[in-house]
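Chain A, query sequence.
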Amino acid sequence: MNYADLFRATLPETALEVAALLVLVVDLGLLRKASLKVRAAVAALLGVAGCTAAVWAMWATGAPGFAVGDSALLGEGGFIAAAQAGILVLTALTLLLLIDSDFTQNVGEFVAVVLMAATGGLLIAAAQDLLVIFIGLELLSLGLYILTAFAKASARSAESAMKYYLFGGMSAAFLLFGFSYFYGLSGTTSLAGIQQAITNSGSSPLLYVAWILVVAGLGFKVAAVPFHLWAPDTYEGAPAPAAAFIASVSKVASFTLLLTIGANWLTFHQDFALSPRALTQVVHQTEAAWSPLASILLLVAAASMVVGNLAALAQVSVRRLLAYSAIAHAGYILLGVATFPHSTGAEQSFESVMQSITQTDITANAVLYYVLSYGLTTIGAFGVVGVVERATGSDKLDAFLGLHKRNPLLAAVVLILFLSLAGIPPLVGFWAKFNLFAAVLSNSAGPVPFALVALAVALSAVSLYYYLQVLKRAYVMKPVDEAPIRVHPVTLLVLLVIAAAVVVLGCFPALLQNWISGFYLIN
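Chain A, predicted structure.
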C-alpha cells in the first residue's frame, strides 16, 4: 500500500479533520472566556475555512481515487467529485446558520462534530468497497445522532436523538447482513468485483435477500418508506442547523452511494476491446443480474411519494411538514436511481447498448442535480424555521402569521424556497424535477416507469397545497403579533444568497448542470 497516494486521495477529508481539531483548540483554549456570540462566529468561520480548504484540495489533487492492487477503495472524478464538492458547500452553509443560534453553549464541539460527520459523507460518496462504505456510514451516522441531541435543555431533542439512534442501529444491522450475503456470493468486498461475480453467476434467491437488506439499510439513510419513521421526530426535535445538515448532506452522500452501486456495472462494459456482440451480451447479463435492485427501488419510490405527500397534508408543524416533504422527495429521486443503469432489453443492437451506457451519465447527473438543489433549498428552509422559532417560540404553521409584515425579506425567502420545493417554474426545483422525470422516461420502456412518473407529477401538485399553507399564513392571514422579527445580518445574508441562488439556477438551469459536468474533467 502506498500511503502517499492514500494521503493524496484523502486530502479533503484530512483538511476537515484538521479544521475540526483547530476549532476545538481555539474554542476551548483561546476563546474559553469569550461571549457565546464571538465563540459561535469564530467556530463557524473556522469550519467554513476547513470546507474551503477541502474544496481547494479536491481541485489541487484532481480528486484522485485509491486502490489496493486491482481493488478500488475510493472512486474519482465524475458525479463522485461533484457530490463531494456539493457536500462541502452545503456543510459550509449549515455552519453559517450556527452564528445566530443559542441552543447550546458548546459551539466548538458542535462545529467539530459537523466537520467529522461531513468527512463521513465524503467517504460514502467516494466509497468503492463494502468496508469503506460501512466506515463512512458509521462516521456520518454517529455524528448525526450527536447533533440531534445537542440541544441539551430540550427533552424533545433527547427523545428524537434516541429514536434516531435506535432506528440507525437496526439499519446498520440490516446493512451488514446484506453485505455479508454479497461477500458470500462473490468472495470479495469490492463493488466492481461483486458486480462481476454476480454477472457471471447470474441471479439467485440470496441475491434478492441481499438487495432487500441493503435497501432497508440505505432506505433508512434517505428516509424512504417504510424506513422513514425516524425522520419526522428527528426533524422536529433536532436544532435547526442540525436538521438542515441531516436533510441535505446526509441525503447527498447516501444517494451518491446508490449511484455508485449502479455505476459499477460500467467498469468493464466500457472495455471497447470487446466485440460488439460480446459487449452487448455482457450488458444484458449484468442488467438481468442487477434488475432486483431496480424492482425494489421502484416499489420503495412509489410508497415514499404517496406516504410523504399525503402525510404532509395533516401536519401543523413546519418541521414535520418538511420531514414528510423530504420523504416524498426521496421517492422522486429513487425513481431516477431505480432506472440507473439503463435497461436495454434483450434484442437491442450494439448501437443501442452504447447509447444506454451514455444515458447512465445523463441519469446520474439528473439525480445529482436534484439532490444538490434540494439540499440547498432545504438548508434555507430550516434556516427560516430557526429564525421564526427563536422569535415566536414555535415551529407551528401559525408562527408564520403575517410574516410579510414582520420581516418582508424573510417572507420573500420563504416564498422562493417553498415554491421551489413544490417545483414551480422558473425556480431550480422545477428544473430538478423536469430533468429527473425526463431522464426516467428516456431511460426506461414499459408502462411502469411512465405510470410512476405520472404519479410523481400528480403528487407534486398535491405538495403545492401544503407548501401554500405556509405561504398563506405568511402573506394572507393577519398576524397575531406585529412586532418585527429581527435576523442576524450573517443569517439574513446566507438566506438571501440561498434564495438568490434558487432563482438564478432556475432562470439559468445550465449553470448547475455545467458545474456538475465540469467535475468529469478535473482529472
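The radius of gyration is 22 Å. The chain is about 75% helix and 0% strand.
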